[in-house]
Amino acid sequence: MTSGSDSGAAEDDGVTGEHTTTGDQGPGGTARTPKKPRSFWKELPILIGIALVLALLIKTFLVQAFSIPSDSMQNTLQQGDRVLVDKLTPWFGSEPERGEVVVFHDPDNWLAGEPTTDPNALQTFLSWIGLMPSAEEKDLIKRVVGVGGDTIECKNTGPLTVNGKALNEQSYVYAGNTPCSQDDQGGQFKVKVPEGYIWVMGDHRQNSRDSRYNQADKNHGMVPVKDVVGRAVVVAWPINRWSTLPVPDTFDQPGLNAQPAAAGLPAAPQGLALAGVVPVVWWRRRKQ
What we know:
By secondary structure, the protein is an alpha+beta fold. Helix content is 17%, strand content 19%. The chain has a domain at 63-109 and 118-251: Ribbon (Umud Fragment, subunit A), CATH 2.10.109.10.
């Protein structure tokens, strides 16, 4: 004879036992059909799609690979090198600094007459996802030697001076070159850089069509900051040339930031000076 509480407990146990199921059974003890794993071939298009979206986002907002097409930046960069360019900081309105190697869009037909190549299907695809630069993009790569407000001057074979300070460029100017070129095409100059622009020169001084030789264009050889794609930070390929691209120490010398007034120097029209520029903070300078 059991008590009422014992009977209730037994009934509770009985009810619980009747509805207990195992992992392989559904409610009421029916068999549960296991889910089949999704086929790899069905998932592959999804994975490829995600990878492409990520690649496009990285190319657009973070970093992009560019190929060096000429010898104008020797020996810092060799023809055929692949460099990685920081594209993130310009999105925040940051501006380039002296000594940085930057990629920029052709300001005013600087590449006129340069040979172009027709990419094959693989190169077109790789450029679309950002692993190679597009053949349709007319971009150049040079070193910034002057920013807005700077006075840049070349006399005879050099040295190049910025705001009256001579630059020691031995660490990056191509061996055998002189810092300044003695010619009547633009190698001898004195210019004041307007705000919102930069003055660029190649490290292979006697083999670089840069700001010096484009002073007849609409910007007087200056490159609008809004046309700067980003700063080249790493030589990524070939592997045996992997290296960073720091700012040379000569650009950190005391007094370089002094910007004396210079009357009568060529400058870009005022109407162009700040077109599309939002000044904030550029990437931090990296020393060698």
